[in-house]
Specification:
Layout: E1 5-6, E2 10-11, E3 28-30, E4 35-38, E5 43-48, E6 51-52, E7 60-61
């Protein structure tokens, strides 16, 4: 059995259940920045202590 958990504790299997709160589209995981990316909404949602913060007010705008 493989371990799908990456540092610092975000479980990539959560991507199957999470969607963008704005567009309801799937998200991309950026391991280097510890963010979930919504290309359609142009937002990056932070992952803090392994927990995705799926609040639009907490997201940063993509460049």
């Amino acid at each position: 059995m493989t371990n799908d958990v990456t540092e610092p504790g975000f479980d990539r299997r959560m991507l199957e259940a999470l969607v963008c709160p704005e567009t309801r589209a799937t998200l991309e995981y950026d391991a280097a920045k510890q963010e979930l990316i919504s290309r359609g909404a142009g937002l990056a949602f932070p992952i803090r202590n392994g927990i995705p913060v799926m609040l639009v007010d907490e997201a940063r705008t993509l460049d």
